[in-house]
Amino acid sequence: MSLQRWIDRGLRWWTVGVYVFLFLPIVVVIVFSFNEGRHVAQITGFSLRWYEEAWNDQFVLRALRTSLTIALVSAVIATIIGTLSAIAMHGARPAVRMTFELLIYIAIIVPGIVIGISTLIFAVTAFDLVNPVLASLLPDRPPQLTLGLGTVIAAHAMFTSAIVNVLVRTRMAGMDRTLVEASSDLYASPWRTFRQVTIPQLRPAIVAGFLLAFTFSFDDFIVAFFTTGQDQTLPIFLFASIRRGVTPVVNAIATVLLTVTISSLVLAWFVAVRRGRHAAPESTGAEVAAAAEP
Amino acid sequence: MVDLRKRFGDVQALAGVSFRLEPGTFYALLGPSGCGKTTLLRLLAGFEQPDQGSILIGDEDVAGVPPYRRPVNTVFQHYALFPHMDVARNVGYGLRQQKPAPGRDEQTRRIDQALELVRLQGFGHRRSWELSGGQQQRVALARAIINRPTVLLLDEPLGALDLKLRREMQVELKQLQGQLGITFIFVTHDQDEAFSMADRVAVMHDGRILQDGPPSAIYDRPADPWVASFIGQMNVLPGQLEELGPPAVMRLDRGPVLHGEPPGTPIGIGERALLAVRPERIWLTRAGRNGTGPEHAGTRFEGRIVRTVFLGDTVEHVVDAPAVGTLVISAPNVEGQGTAGPVMGEEVVVGWTDDAARIISERRPGP
Q1: Would you call A192 an interface residue with chain B, using a CB distance cutoff of 8 Å?
Q2: Total domain count for chain A?
Q3: Which of B79, B97, B136, B153 best probes binding to A when mutated, by most A CB atoms within 10 angstroms?
Q4: What is the pLDDT of residues A216-251, one digit of tens each?
Q5: Is residue A80 in a domain?
Q6: Among A82, B106, B319, B348, which is disulfide-ready with B102 (CB 3.0 to 4.6 Å)?
Q7: Which among B292, B277, B266, B275 has a CA at the least distance from the CA of B360?
């Protein structure tokens, strides 16, 4: 056998090894979430008891509800901000547009821990300044701004709106400008053109952006950890319960998280590529994949 | 439309263009790419605004008015059909934007009517990407005429179609324009297209209209050296004007004094001019045999065929005539001349009648 054949064969096994290394832990989590016994490394039979236990645990449910609320609200905010900013940037002068493009890419690559810490510091400082003012304005029942759902939503919306922005802008760049001209030529006012042509053309990117924003928020641990205050999201709950000792309930919750995340990503890809097929090149699909990187 | 100017940065896209159209005219803007014809169309549609000048539709000056408030609709070069709507919704788009929009039944009726006009009955529920190029073209047309605009602008709408389909669409467009009575302004770089459809053709070059007139006038009486060379083939012989005529008299640089139709533009005695003769207006016979040419032939020269090109319906000879220079002569292929006619290297006599020659001032029409 020639050397080349040996190299080819070796590389093939190396690749297999890499994938095993990547996915084996995940597979273990999924398998043991369905395991009857309490102990890892001892498969005793198929069972849904850990899912049942998780479902009946009010702390788990509360964390799930918190996570879903944060993910939904922050995704809606991010979609609106991201889409509108993309449209505004599309019409801006090149110098302005390039500046904002750069800032947005920076927002995407900033590590989660930096976003977490900076949002925490900013929020605490801002609340320290604002709370006395509020207290003096409403002396009877002074509202106290504190860390909580609001700060997590704000922090998530901030970095996921950058992702929506990139997706929508890519789609816009691939959009046929003459469609807007055609609409205007057929007596549609700018507002009606926006509603009847621009938004429908951008819809796949907007929907995909929403789903990505939802996913990022739902499975985020770092940013939420710094900004959440008392409320526990599902990933934070997981982290906390692991410190109390790993039970198969953790495996069940992790599997649910994984399922939600993957289905949301697949849906985002499907919307961007399949629905977007007839108006823009497949770049949006590639963007979804690229945006999913960090 | 009066004296339009438009600059893009340093580029003068339109350097003063003006014309006036009778309602119901089929007007073609003909010129090579970059001549300003598309810019002109975009000014008329309202996608760009002129730096100077006015655009009158009826009595109303629409310069500065946005496209959605102009009684003008456009057929785009690549159709620009809305991909998220079916054919019927594309065609009815203009109706739905009207205030107040016509009722649902009225809309359906007019959409059907428009689709019938372009022979696409029953295509209402198709998607635009399911249609062929020619069909998409018709949808774009139906969409643009459904509001019965005062002026319909067409931006090289047949450019993306193959030759046979283009011929068919030319006939259909012309018919449609007759039926509707709408003014058509048609941008093209294809002179056959312009000539076969238009009532009037404007030849554009470098942001100006060099000549504006019926197709026959453009072809037979080009007013400008550039027009003469752009439209069809032309033999041009440089010289000086001696008498204004008619017939005008010109002394060629090579010596001979020839007669021709006087130029349509102002010119003085002694000024530089060109004598222009179409290849198909020159006759050619074998040397030594007298008399095949018309009896009253104003001009005749001896020469020698240096090249013969067989084109199917015509045969083209390139003749070197020492007295005037190289001439291109095209003869109809009536008797299978491809084999029996004069051949390369043969001595021939060529000539033309005085009315076949036209004198063109070398002076450009002023800005």
Answers
A1: yes
A2: 1
A3: B97
A4: 999 888 899 888 878 888 888 888 888 877 778 888
A5: yes
A6: B106
A7: B275
Provide the residue range defining the domain that includes B256. Answer: 232-277+357-361
Query: What pTM value is reported for the model?
Result: 0.73
Lowest mean pLDDT among A21-30, A34-43, B119-128, B332-341: B332-341
> B181 in the Ramachandran plot: left (φ > 0), alpha (ψ -120 to 50) or beta?
left
Contact B67 A184 (CB under 8 A): yes
Task: Count structural domains, chain B.
Answer: 3
**Closest alpha carbon to B138 in B122, B156, B157, B162:** B157
- Express each pLDDT in B183-240 by its tens digit: 899 998 888 888 888 899 999 888 888 888 898 888 888 888 888 888 888 888 888 8
Residues of chain B with C-beta less than 8 angstroms from the C-beta of A195: none
Residue that the structure tokens 């598309």 belong to: B38
Contacts of A187 in chain B (CB under 8 A): 68-69, 94, 97-98, 147
In a domain, B367, yes or no: no
Containing structural domain, residue A239: 59-292
Say what percent of chain B tops pLDDT 90: 8
Question: What type of residue sits at position B65?
Answer: V
How many CB pairs (< 8 A) connect A and B? 67
ipTM over 0.85: no
CATH code assigned at A284: 1.10.3720.10
Locate the chain B residue with the closest alpha carbon to A200.
Answer: B84
Is B109 a member of any domain? yes
CATH of the domain at B328: 2.40.50.100
Check which CATH number belongs to the domain holding B33 and give it: 3.40.50.300
Q: Considering Cα of A97, then A100, then A102, then A108, what sign does the dihedral take?
A: negative
